[in-house]
Amino acid sequence: MALEFELLRTRPTGWSPADARVVLNARMDARIVPDSGCARLHYAHLVVLDDFVGDIERGALLDLLTAPGWDHGQGPPPSKWERATADGAGLPATWGLTDEALAALAADPPPAMLEVHARLAALFPDAEEREAAPAVSLSDPEGMTDRKVMADAPVRCAAFVGNAAVAGDAFAYHVDADPAAFPDSPWRARFGDYANGARGRPLLVSLLVYLDAAWPRDWGAETLFLDGRTDVGIAVRPKPGRAVLMDQDLLHRVSAPSPAAGSRPRYSLVRKLALLPRANLLHQTALLRLSELPIPLGYSWSP
Ligand SMILES: O=C(O)CCC(=O)C(=O)O
Ligand SMILES: [Fe+2]
C-alpha cells in the first residue's frame, strides 16, 4: 500500500505567530540514541502556546463536535461520541469522537479547522516558501500506532482524535507514536527505523487543543507529561485558546476531571502531524526552532 501524505488544508489568515505566547518550552526524555551510524542526544519537545486558537474558532469547533447550544452537563452527544477509546488494552473505554464524525472533519474541514491549520502553518514558514515540497504535512500512514485501540481490533491510526474526558474515567500513559517502535509497514519501508527527531526523517508531532469555554482549576483534567526515565513530569491545564505541540514519542496522558466537574466533559481535539524534511535541507522545524530557547516556568514570550 502506498504511503500517502495529505498536505494540511489552510485558509488565508491575518494571525501571526507573534500573536501567540509561548508559556512552556520544555525538553524531556533526554537520552542517547543511534543516528546515521553515530549517536545523538535525543529530547522529546513539549511546547505550550496560549492565544493560539481564537475564541471564535474554539467555539465553532466545540459546536461542531457537539451541537450549538448543547447542554454540556449531560455529557457528550451520543450522535457524535462513543465510549470506545482506550489508552491501553483492559482499560475501561472513554468517550471519543465516532469514526463518522472524525471522517467528516477530515473530509471537509470547517473554516475554524482551516484557521487552526493556517496558524499552525504560520509557525512553519518553510512550508509556505515551497508549495511543492511542504514541510508540514498531515500523516495517515498505515502502521502508525494510535491510542484508539478497540477491544480486539488491530492497532489503527487516525489523523484526528477527539476526547471527552469525564469524572471517573481512567487514562494511562502512552505515546501517540514512536517511529522506533513501528511494525513492518510502508512507513518503515520508506523511512526506516529511527528515533523521532532524527535529521532528514519525518518528525511526528501532535497538536492538542482544548475546546471548553472555561475549565476552572479545581476541575482537574490536566494533560500530564512524564519523563520516562526519572518519573518527573509536567502538568498542563486545559484552557481556551491553548495549544500543545508535543513530539509524539513523549509519554503523556489525560487525567480525569475531578468530581467537582460533575458530568461535564473536558473536550480536546488532537491532530497527528508528520513534519516532512525537505530535500537537501537540514531538518528544521518550528518546534526545533522554538526549542532553541527553553524558558523557565513563569515566563512567556512571543515567537
Ligand atoms: O486530551 C488530552 O489532554 C490528551 C489526549 C491524548 O493524549 C490523545 O488523544 O492521544
Ligand atoms: Fe495522546
Automatic annotation (TrEMBL):
Record has Oxidoreductase as a keyword: yes
Residues annotated as domain Fe2OG dioxygenase: 150-279
Keywords: Iron, Metal-binding, Oxidoreductase
PROSITE patterns: FE2OG_OXY (PS51471)
Annotated GO MF terms: metal ion binding; oxidoreductase activity
Family: Belongs to the iron/ascorbate-dependent oxidoreductase family.
The protein's name in its UniProt record: Fe2OG dioxygenase domain-containing protein
